[in-house]
């Protein structure tokens, strides 16, 4: 996501590198290039205009800093302005004073509402809530069933109309679901509504009626980030027809130009609250404007990486590992294997590396880091006996050949793994317990 924009912007910054001070002509040229980059990324024209005006004004002199060189200053300004158009502060969910808190989802068909309902429910459940999913999309064949499947996967209950009882009246289903939630002590209700392929008065009216019936704390407008400019028009139509309190961007995993993301907040005035970046339940996160901006600028996203690591690594396990690492040579290939598996659970390695600072410019190198390499490394370790994993020094020539054959690699691969493991262990011993297991593991790969 945002790859093209990132690449273009980093080109702009590279051109500034080495300049002692910025002339007016430099600023104009830079502004022009940023403008092209944004337009190419499909950012809405009024948003681009305003953005460029701010950059020019700020880069134009008042903010001359002795601490930063011109390129750094421009990056800093662009970063701050990006954070601003993305909404500034992270916007958290608003909860009802009296449960249940009701969250209603609205958006076009195919935007990813149903998928999101599951993700949101799972995320809420993980935080100790007892969400109820409500199927109010009674238009699309199979939509109710789809939500039930999603709910099951997320481990939450789904409320759907009984056949013959209120079928066809989504407003009634929505209203009844709140009573049900109250009785069954669900503290959160997520209402999935029907979408259409295009903006349509009847659909808007239905969504507005549901909103009036359930009086939600949040109405989330769900929009597919891949649709480009249209997203802005759709957002405006939903804002006028139903009204919403927050935006969810979906399909940020696609290689869309992503300009919608940069425009919707500015155009509607409502904050982007969540982002979806895949079809799996866990491909979902709270939207942080500052982190997104630094990702766009290729500055990486350490915070997200750390949070993901925390989510996928058991805390006790991490502490045990940290203790072993501080002690240096207690770290074994068995531990390494555990960590490799934990990293693989976090998703494709390319995604993780993309979040690390400085990696933005290293796309080519990144492309070579193959998940298969990690899997092959894991296979080699699995081919070893527990004693060998504990102490790889005992692996002799014939065992190396046997392990290589067993895991389908060359003997040199086994040798390399063992050598690098010792090297890394030595290094890790020196570094002591760093906070992040994933980082340690990477340095040992
Ligand atoms: P709805 O009509 O708004 O309920 O949309 P759905 O939830 O049925 O999603 C439409 C399609 O988009 C489905 O095939 C989903 O699997 C897919 N989808 C939803 N969210 C994402 C996402 O974040 N990334 C990707 N790649 N696909 C998604």
From TrEMBL:
Keywords: Cytoplasm, GTP-binding, Hydrolase, Nucleotide-binding, Ribonucleoprotein, RNA-binding, Signal recognition particle. GTP binds at residues 107-114, 192-196, 250-253. It is an enzyme of class 3 (hydrolase). Its main location: cytoplasm. GO terms for molecular function: 7S RNA binding; GTP binding; GTPase activity. The keyword Transcription does not apply. It catalyses: GTP + H2O = GDP + phosphate + H(+). CDD domains: SRP_G. It comes from the Bacteria. One of its GO terms (biological process) is SRP-dependent cotranslational protein targeting to membrane. HAMAP family: SRP54. PANTHER family: SIGNAL RECOGNITION PARTICLE 54K PROTEIN SRP54 (PTHR11564), SIGNAL RECOGNITION PARTICLE SUBUNIT SRP54 (PTHR11564:SF5). Involved in targeting and insertion of nascent membrane proteins into the cytoplasmic membrane. Binds to the hydrophobic signal sequence of the ribosome-nascent chain (RNC) as it emerges from the ribosomes. The SRP-RNC complex is then targeted to the cytoplasmic membrane where it interacts with the SRP receptor FtsY. Part of the signal recognition particle protein translocation system, which is composed of SRP and FtsY. Composed of three domains: the N-terminal N domain, which is responsible for interactions with the ribosome, the central G domain, which binds GTP, and the C-terminal M domain, which binds the RNA and the signal sequence of the RNC. Belongs to the GTP-binding SRP family. SRP54 subfamily. This is Signal recognition particle protein.
């Amino acid at each position: 996501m945002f790859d093209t924009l990132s690449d273009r912007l980093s080109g702009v910054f590279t051109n500034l590198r080495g300049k002692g001070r910025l002339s007016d002509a430099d600023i104009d040229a830079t502004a022009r290039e940023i403008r092209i980059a944004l337009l190419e990324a499909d950012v809405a024209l009024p948003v681009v205009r305003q953005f460029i005006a701010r950059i020019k004004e700020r880069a134009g002199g008042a903010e001359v800093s002795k601490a930063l060189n011109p390129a750094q200053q421009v990056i800093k300004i662009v970063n701050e302005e990006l954070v601003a158009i993305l909404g500034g502060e992270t916007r958290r969910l608003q909860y009802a004073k009296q449960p249940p808190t009701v969250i209603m989802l609205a958006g076009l068909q195919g935007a990813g509402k149903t998928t999101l309902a599951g993700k949101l429910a799972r995320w809420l459940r993980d935080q100790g809530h007892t969400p109820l999913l409500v199927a109010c999309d009674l238009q699309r064949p199979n939509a109710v069933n789809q939500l039930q499947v999603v709910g099951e996967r997320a481990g939450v209950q789904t409320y759907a109309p009984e056949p013959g009882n209120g079928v066809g009246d989504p407003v009634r289903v929505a209203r009844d679901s709140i009573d049900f939630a109250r009785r069954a002590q669900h503290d959160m209700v997520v209402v999935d509504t029907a979408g259409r392929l295009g903006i349509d008065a009847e659909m808007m009216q239905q969504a507005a009626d549901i909103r009036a019936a359930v009086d939600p704390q949040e109405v989330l407008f769900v929009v597919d980030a891949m649709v480009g400019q249209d997203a802005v028009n759709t957002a405006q139509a939903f804002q006028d027809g139903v009204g919403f309190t927050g935006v969810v961007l979906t399909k940020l995993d696609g290689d869309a130009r992503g300009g919608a993301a940069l425009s919707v907040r500015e155009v509607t005035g409502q904050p982007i609250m969540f982002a979806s970046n895949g079809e799996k339940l866990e491909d979902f996160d709270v939207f942080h404007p500052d982190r997104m901006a630094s990702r766009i600028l290729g500055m990486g996203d350490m915070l997200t990486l750390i949070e993901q690591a925390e989510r996928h690594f058991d805390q006790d396990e991490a502490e045990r590992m940290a203790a072993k690492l501080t002690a240096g040579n207690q770290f074994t290939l068995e531990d390494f294997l555990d960590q490799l598996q934990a990293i693989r659970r976090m998703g494709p390695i390319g995604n993780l590396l993309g979040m690390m600072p400085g990696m933005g410019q290293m796309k080519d190198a990144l492309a070579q880091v193959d998940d298969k390499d990690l899997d092959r490394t894991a296979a080699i370790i699995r081919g070893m006996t527990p004693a060998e994993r504990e102490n790889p020094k005992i692996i002799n020539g014939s065992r190396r050949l046997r392990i290589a054959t067993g895991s389908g690699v060359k003997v040199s691969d086994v040798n390399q793994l063992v050598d690098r493991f010792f090297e890394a262990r030595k290094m890790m011993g020196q570094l002591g317990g760093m906070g992040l297991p994933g980082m340690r593991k990477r340095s040992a790969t």
